[in-house]
Amino acid sequence: MVQVKKADPNNRTVAENRKARFSYEILDTLETGLVLTGTEVKSLRGGHANIQDSYASSEGGEIWLINSYLPEYLQANRFNHEPRRRRKLLVKKREMARLAQAVDREGMTMVPLKIYFNDQGRAKLLLGVARGKKLHDKRQTEKERDWAREKGRLLKERG
């Protein structure tokens, strides 16, 4: 009898920014922690979050996640959080300096790629250091993706 592994409820993706990989060339990634309130964690565990239009910014020696959407937790009446508030990211000073340097000198941007829970059950954000793609680069990416899909279909058809 074959045993089926169940997905670990603690280690799962809550929100993913799929548009970022199309719009940006991801050069480096970094796992960061998030400073959240209790109701935000409850809302994340429910699987509700949106980081499509969000970005990270270095301000005052700290890195902030801006414009991310974590909806209110319905069971927490007056102790709820603001859905679009700025959230502080937990990054070591050396990493923070490296990220700020890449953004300031090289014209890159910090893009959140996904929010997930790690093995310890803590909410983490995968932050990508990226450079924006030009229109012709986006077209090339789309052509490569279409060809890979078509090639898979042809190989499946022929055996």
From TrEMBL:
Main location: cytoplasm
Compositionally biased region (Basic and acidic residues): 138-159
Record's subcellular location: Cytoplasm
Record has Transit peptide as a keyword: no
Keywords: Cytoplasm, RNA-binding
SUPFAM superfamilies linked to this entry: Small protein B (SmpB) (SSF74982)
UniProt xrefs under CDD domains: SmpB (cd09294)
Function: Required for rescue of stalled ribosomes mediated by trans-translation. Binds to transfer-messenger RNA (tmRNA), required for stable association of tmRNA with ribosomes. tmRNA and SmpB together mimic tRNA shape, replacing the anticodon stem-loop with SmpB. tmRNA is encoded by the ssrA gene; the 2 termini fold to resemble tRNA(Ala) and it encodes a 'tag peptide', a short internal open reading frame. During trans-translation Ala-aminoacylated tmRNA acts like a tRNA, entering the A-site of stalled ribosomes, displacing the stalled mRNA.
Family: Belongs to the SmpB family.
NCBIfam families: PRK05422.1, smpB
The protein's name: SsrA-binding protein
Primary gene name: smpB
